[in-house]
Each structure stands twice: as C-alpha cells, then as structure tokens.
Queue: 4 jobs
Job 1
Amino acid sequence: MGDGKKLSSLDASFLYLETPEMPMHVGSMAIFRLPDDYQGDFFEEFKAMIASRLHIAPILKARLEKAPLDIDHPSWVEDDQFDIDRHIFRASLPAPRDRATLERIVGWMHAKLLNRARPLWEFYVFEGMKDNEIGLYSKMHHACIDGGAGAALTNMIYDISPVPRNVEPP
C-alpha cells in the first residue's frame, strides 16, 4: 500500500453516508455441499487459502487512516497489526440448522457495522448445516469494493475447481 492511497470522493462518500441504520457494506452468501467423504476442516483450509492469497488483494490488509484534522478524505494504509483471525470466523447454526435459519442469522449480521479500526471485511463459515453443506457469508465495505472490483476479487481469491490453483507469493 505504500504511504497510503487516498479514497476517491465516491468511495469516501460511502463512509460519510453510513449510519447504524444504513450500513454501507456489501455482502454475499454462498452455500457449498462438501463431498460425502470429506474429512478435512473446511474452516481452517479456507482461512489458510485466503491467507496464502492476501498478496494478490492488498485491500484485504488495508485499513482507513484519517487525514490530519479531517481536512481531506481518508487513505488506505497497510494494517501493520493485521490478524486474519479478526476477519474470518467459524460459526455454527442453532437447530434446525437449515437455510432459513442461516438467512435469518446472516440478515442480523449484515445489519451490523464493520469495525473501521481494521480492514473493512469479514468472512463467516457456517458449519453443521444439513446435507453436509457449508455456508460462506462475506461482508466488505463499499468504500473498498464495487461490483467490478468485487467480481475481480472473487476470481482472484476463489477457485471453481476442487483442486486449488497455485498462487505464487510475491
């Protein structure tokens, strides 16, 4: 990130317009069915995969830094205290552990603001669903991602194959 990248007026407007009643983040919910013979720990494997790809999406390690006296828009700076465990969480559903329960919980979670002291994104891995399904909810502030950037980030981070592609470190 270098010395910081100042937010555009449009991106900064998402911060200025945000209120507890009107969060300005975007979210997505995906449901994956694990193979019946899957013996791994999806949460730990997912977290390790994201950690191994952080270098291709620097925004995931960037936090906001206000301009002196707030005379300008904030900047993105690399978070030297970055901890992936503050961004990727393991969650389990209460009974009946179905999609309707997942939707209610994700709706409640989506209404909560992101912590502006950290990079503005979170992933939640919901385990224990019926039929060996995993729910993956992502939340990212609109100040750091728009539709096009979101699609590009998805392509950089996720794989469509059960065998992850090799992403070289920097």
Note: The beta strands are 5-6, 25-33, 62-65, 75-78, 88-92, 121-127, 133-141.
Job 2
Amino acid sequence: MRKSFRGLSALVRNQLKHDPLSGQYFVFVNRRKTQMKMLYFTATGYCLWAKRLEQGQFRVPLSASGQRALTLTDLQLLIDGIEVQKYRQFKRFRGV
C-alpha cells in the first residue's frame, strides 16, 4: 500500500478503466487485508483516506474480477468491520 494520489489514480484509469475524476469512491485493500485506502475526487481536488487495522482483517467481498460495486451502507459496514455478505436488509412495512 505504497501508492498515493498519482499511483492510485493511474491504477483506476489504466487497470480499472474508470475515470478517477468522476467523484466515485475507489477502495483498495492490501493482500493481507489489514490496510485500506479510499480515493475520490471533489470539486477542489483528490482526497485520500487510509485505515490500518491493528488486529483482524477487513472482510472484503470480491467478485472473480477483483472488483465490486458497493453502496454507501456497504462501505460503512466494511470500514466498521462488519461482513457485508452476511448483512441483509429486510423490507419494512410502511403504513399508508
């Protein structure tokens, strides 16, 4: 996890084939799943957020391609250490 703004934005552009200036959040996790970096772009520039776990691992849900789209809720669960694949939201009754 040595890459910073330029390295991660190049990775997004060249390997993931996405535009790093789109405003989407791009999350990267190291092989040991103990460090996470999140890159995104705002109107004024790039933002880079990092978290290193002192104990345990991130429970990262991956597809065969190594990429996965996450909702904001899924991202919050991942950051908080909750396994996203086991999380399921039930439909709630809403009165008229």
Note: The beta strands are 26-29, 35-42, 45-52.
Job 3
Amino acid sequence: MTALQVLQLVVIGWMPGAAIFRLPWLDRDRRAGLPAEERLFWAIVISLAISLSLVLVLAAAGQYSLGRLLAANAGLAACAAAAARLDLRLGPAARRPGLSILLPLMLVALGIWRFFPPAEYVIGGKDPGVYIAEGIQIAQQGTFAYDDPVVSTVPPFARDLFFPSHEREEYYGLRFMGFFIMDPERGTVVGQFPHLFPASIAIGYGLDGLSGARRAVGVWAVLGLLAVYFAGAQLAGRAAAWSACVLLALHVVQVWFARYPNAEVVMQAFLFAALLALARNHHDRDTFFAPVAGLLLGLLFFLRVDAALSAMAVVIAIALLTAAGERRQTGVVVVLGACAVLAALYLLGPMRAYAERPILFLTHNVFWWHYLAGAALAAAVLALVLVSARNPALSTRVRGLAPVLVTAIVVLGAVYALYFREPAGKLAPYDAYALRDFTRFYLSNGGLLAALAGFMLLARHSFWRAPALFITVAVFALFFFYKIRIVPEHFWAARRFVPVILPGALLFACAAATWGLRQSGARRIVSAAIGAVFILLLGGHYARAARPVVDHLEYAGIIPELESLAGSIGADDLLLVESRDAGSDAHVFALPLAYIYARPVLVLASARPDREAFGTFLEWARTRYGAVYFLGGGGTELLARDWSAKSVASRRFQVPEYESAWSAFPRVVRRKEFDFGLYQLLPAAADPGMWFDLD
C-alpha cells in the first residue's frame, strides 16, 4: 500500500468522523470518557457512514469520483473544525489507551487472517458478480443510472435479439442478469440491488482497482466483528463479547460471507453499531449518539429491503423506552424518518424494479381491512405508550413486564420450532425446520441451549441497558425462523443468519458461559472454568467445520482468464455472447467484460435467434464497430447470409467452486469447467449467397 493510498484511507475512513465526534457540543466530555478503542471505532464508523452517504448523493447526481469524495470529506472536516473554532481536543476527560485495546486489535488480526484473500467472484449469473459490477460502474461512470451507449445504439428492429421487452412498467428488459434496462432509447441501465454496498465497492475500486473492489467485503466483515464486540461489551461485558467475536471469526458462515460479495456483512456492521449508539443514547444519556443511530439505521434502507425489520425492531424498542419513562429518542426518530422518506423516493424511483416484489406482496396479499386494523392497532399502542409515559406506576409495570414478555416469546418460539413444528399445507419443510437446520448445521444443540440461557439471564438483569439489541435479535429470529424466505441451498441460505441471528446467538451463548465471572470465591473459579471449556469446545467445532472454506478460494484463477479474454477484444469492437439457454456458462463472462473491462458486449436472448434479423444486425454492426466477435460454447444456432466465422481462440479451464447442498451442510470443493470459443464474424469472401452455421 502506497503513502497516497494510506492518506486516502484516512480521509475516507477516519477524518470526518473524528472531527464530528470531537465537536464541543452535546456534552463532549461524556463521550470523551469512552475507552480509546471505542472512540476510534466511532470515528471510523461515522466516517464510513458519511462517505457512503456522499457517494450515494454524488452518484444520484451523476457526479461521483474518488477525487470529489476526498474533497467533500476534507471540506466537511474543515467545516467542522471551523465551526468548533479549532476546539477539537477531547481534553482531560479522554482516557488513555489501556490493555483493553488489545482485545479489538486481536479481533482485527484474526479477521484479516480468516477473511482474506477474497473470492474471485466477478462473473455474472448470481448476486456477487452483480454487486461487484454495480460498484465498479459507479466508480467508472460516476452514477448508478448509466446511459449505456451499446444499448442505445442497437437499432429498434434488433432489440428483441438481445433484450426483448418484458412489457413491464418498472423496466423495459434485461441488459444482463441483475441489470435492468429502464429506457432503451437512452440506454439507461440500473443495477438490481440498492447501492450502499456497491458504493463501498466503488471506493475500493478507486483506491486499488479490482483488487480493492474485491476486498471491500472483507473490510466490512472485520468491521462487523468490531461492531458486535463493542455492542456486546456494553451489554454483557468484554469477556463475553470478545469470546463471541472469536467464535464468530472462526465460524464457517462468517468466513464464507466475509470473502463472498454480499450485503449482509454490511448490515451486520452498521446494525450492531446502531444498536450500540442507541444504548449509549438512552443508557449513558449521551444525546450525541441519537442522530448517529438514526443515520446508521437509515442507511440500511439503501442496502436491503429487509432493513425494514431492523427499523421495526428499533421502533418497538423506542416505544418500550418511551412507555418506561425514557424520553431521549427524538434525534433517532427524526433522522431515521428523514432517511426513510429519501429511501422511499429512491426505491419508488430508480429502484422501482427492485421494489416491485414487496410492492406486489403488499398490493396482492394485504387488503384494505388489514391496513385499517393495523392503523387502529398502531393508534391504540401509541395511546398506551403516551399514557404509560406520563404515569409512573404504569412505567414501572412496563419496566418489569417487558423483559419477561420478550424472553417468553423467544423461548416458547424456540421450543415450538425445535420440537413441534412440522410442514403442512403451504408450509414447506425447509421453512418448518429452519431453526432445526440452523442449529444442526451452524450453531449446535449446546450452542442453542447456551444462547437461550444467556438471553434469559441478560434479559432478567440487563434488558434496559440495550433493549433494542434484545428486540432486534428476537424480531429477526421470529421472522426468518417462521419462514426463511430463501431456497435451502447452503451456504447460500445461511446469509439469512449473518446480520443478526448468528452474532446474536453467539453473544448470548458466551454471556451464559461467562456468567460465573460475576460470582465470587470458589464459585467464580469453577463457573469460569466450565464456561471456558464450553467456549473452547464450541470454537474447536466451528474451526474444524470452517477449515475447508478457509483453505478455499472461490473461482480462483478466473480473473486472469477474463483479462486474457478482454485483451482479445478491442474497445471499439463488439462481442456477441451466447444466451443462457444455449447450454453453456459463457454468458457469465458478458457482465464483467462489459462493466469491469469496458468492452462493448451484447448477450443473445435466445440460442436460436431470428436469422434474417441477425443477418441485418451484423450488416449494421459492421458499420459501427471495428470488428464483431462471438463467444460461445457451441449451443447456439447462428445462421446469417453472406457472413463467415473465423476461430480466434478456444479455451477450456476449470476453477474451484464449493458445492451447494440442498438442506444439507456443504463439504466438497468441486471443479467448475468452462469450455468456449471466440470467433470473429466476417463478411463471406466468396459465394455471397451462402449462409454460415456456427453450432
């Protein structure tokens, strides 16, 4: 890493957050009294939240570049310093670093060891490649709604050859899997997924090219470890939090998704940081963290649709806090509400195609009387909360009953899901057995029992230290163990457990295992020893299960093959790629060639394109592009009058691919084979009436 890259990282990942954290407002001495390691954590988290917000704003205006982001961050830090009249020293209230700083440093080292190098998953066909391409498009084009000249210049008669209309209001057709064409005349293309995670990929790409883009997910996973640690330490103490994060770093699910592009690790980092901010706001009475929590939660709306679960859980927690007499949540609600309004405009505007499924669910499965009943229930709950907030006796009752009620719901739900729930009617087996599969594949029976015990113990003694954390874990568990809402292909289905369920379960399990440290005398020694043995056994089990994944690099070697292929095609040439239904995987190369390596690419919509239209298109393409190539594996019937095909290259290679197991734990690394040829399509030199047949 060069000195320039280090400086850029400081400006992006520390400077604005550090300046804002040090502002002499909102009782600075209170947050200055936090441990040094947590102060550094907050500087990084706030900086990342600001940087990603700026990327989204700049990209929405079509003006993003790394230079503009650096200038905006530096300008914001300078404005903060000027507003504070350069009074950014924390002063004597700031504690010096102690030995406790070694705990998060060890977690960072463990995460770097376990989570890197990242997978070479840059090809199309599934979510990871789409995320990478979305981020790189932001970096290269400065926007997330890109006017693709390859699309806009395709003659109207030839559009059905490559992107036939889907006859939808939300979008016209597909550019590639995961990229929607919004307007074929202008060529406007938008990625399928919300752009918070791709924004971080864009930053990584600006810092270190494709390698930096790939490393973004690992950085998020390390930040997730730290967020879980600090949130857990505030609730259960450093021993329990550190032990839980070590187990999390050893766990196969965290290792897999720390190397595999996905948005869930981003949610893990920002959501646990938001939960910590909420706890600092209401328990430590530090109002600085109220807008911080609102911003972190609000940014999740730009990450995944299930961020609504986290917002719902926090709203429930705020309602409970208000009913219990706490009135320090205004900053959270205001910032979260503002983010929700912006997110609604974003999702109903450029991301309407992504929002289509939840909109259809709400319009086809929720009827007017559901909304009426929901509004009546919300009004009744709001009235009850307001009455309780003004009645000390009712507030006391809420403080006593809420932990018991939440614990009862979680424990009874777990018992039902483990021992009594069976598939029936529309309830699929993988939905009915979701908790059993999670326990069997990823947690262990002992881990689940310890997690439930820890939940009960902490809820009884410490619920009001961090009620949002308890409720968030409960809401996510109830929602996904009721219906997991994903096909049971593992490790793919395990992504549901990454943001909250797995780290929450490990945190509560380690809280139970370290509970003896609260005792004294011989009981403390014996209980601590038993807990340590339990954690060591659990850690050994997780490490053994993850060993094949640690030694594995998904799709290793595919990037050099892509670079070689891109080098065979000029920037002013056109590459036609075999369709998905042609029986080969050649189509997965189209996305990176177009949106990483900036080659003009079109994917055929059918393995049997209309011969007359295709021939006419080739005649047109000849006048616009320097050369026309075709990439395929032999499953396409290409017939065109007066054209011939010249073989340019033939490649056959294999890359490692971890197996996907249906309702089972994956154990085997397989070899995925690619076999394709690259052909140049040329006008026939003789016999102008001939047809060429490439099959």
Note: The chain has 28 helices and 13 strands.
Job 4
Amino acid sequence: KQYKFKWLYLWRVNRAYDAPIERMPFRTEPNESRLEINKWVERKTKNRIVDLLPDGSITDLTALVLTNAIYFKGQWDKKFLEENTKDDEFKTLEGETVRAAMMTMQDKLSVYEGDGLKMIELPYAGKQFSMLVVLPSEDESIKTLEKSLSLSDINHYADLLTERKVNLTLPKFKFEADYQLKPVLSRMGMPIAFSNAADFTRMTRIPELKIDQVYHKAVVEVSEEGTEAAAATAVVIVRKSVEVPVEFNVNRPFMFLIRDNQSGTILFMGRVTNPTI
C-alpha cells in the first residue's frame, strides 16, 4: 500500500533538513527495503556505520520507520603527538586497573575546576566544534555526576572555562552505541506517536500511520589526529612559558560531549568507563 505525503510537508522537511522522503516496498520486499536503507546509511557515514536496521526490524506490517545515523570524526585544532602516547593506568568503573593508550599534551587549553568536577575544552580544527571532557572529582562517582549534570549546568561551566597552561593526559577511545529509542521517547512524552492513536495527518491523509521504531547508532573515535601546523606553533609557545601547568589526568571514568560552539547544541554525549573495550 502506498502512502501519499502532502506536498507542504515534503517541502518543509526538504527545506529545513534537506531530508527527502522515499517510498519503500515494505509489504512486498521488507528485507530488501531494510538492506537499501542500510546502504544509504553506510554511504552517508562513509561506511563507518553498517547494519543500522537489524535483521527482522522491517516486516510486511511496517508502515513507517524513522532512521538516524551520525558519524563524527574531527581533527583536533591542537594535535596530540603519536610519539607521546604511552600505555598507562586507567581505573575503570568497577575499580579494576587496566593499561590504556594515553595521549599526552602540554599546551594552552581552556579548563574549569569546581563543584565536584573538572572540565576541559578540546577544539576541533576551525573551532566551530569542541569536545568537552568532564571528569568527576576523585571522591565523586561518574554516575552521580551524570544524574546531577543538566544542559544548563554544562553551558554554565563552559562559560567559566579559562585558558591555562595544561598538562593533559587523555585515553584514546572509540565510542560506539546503538539504541532503539521507542521506550526512551515514550517516557520523554511522545508515546502517542507509537500507538494507534497517533496522528500524522499533517504528513499524509492516511490516518492509520504510527511509528514502529526509532533506530539510532553513533560512532565517535578519539585519537591523536589534528591540525599539524597549529600544533607545531602552539608547542613552541608553551615551552617558552613560565606558567606552572595545571594537571588534567583523565585516568578514571569520564564524560565527553561534542558541542557546537556557536549554538551550544550538544551533538554527542557519552561516558567512557574503560577505554580498552
């Protein structure tokens, strides 16, 4: 069965999100439709996210599926030198000590310390985006910090960041997560969209539409890569400085956020409890 979408809806989503709508033969070719959507995701994420929609996620009863996949790998504005990366101790959430590849840098970076946490900003090349690393104090758990930290808190602490000379130690890590967001979105206040009471009549005149599932998968990879010229200049400057550096050693569970510096929008947010897995 085909669903005709209203032209005003198609125009708006294309204008606002550059998001085309494509009809898929869910009823007659459900698995082929799934594979085609997965291929589209792979192309958009440069083959870093595969199989977003798992086997069986689309059936002949599927009417509407919302898929979202993002891959982000930015180059640092100030590069970590690979020769400075050494294995060192990292204490996991379970209290186990593991050996992790720890990147090190001494440079001018923006930091904040107070209220039971430490925050450091690592800009990406172009400085439109930054990674914020949030480390709880040694007597505070990462879970407690997560529960108490709101978006307004994050923006508040980001405003308090001050440029200092810093000795930074940060583990290399790859963060990968996938979610089925139906229960999460339902708890956040939109359960009707997944029920028979859903109303998508602003999209189409066909009333019997509801969202089956929302799939989300994200990959964030953190390594030494960055803007080489900027790093070379910065290293020379800090070596001439007489300022006593601040120690920022990320050797225990921490939060990371990738943030748009212009709007303050959080693009990614995650927790690293063991960088070796």
Note: The radius of gyration is 22 Å.
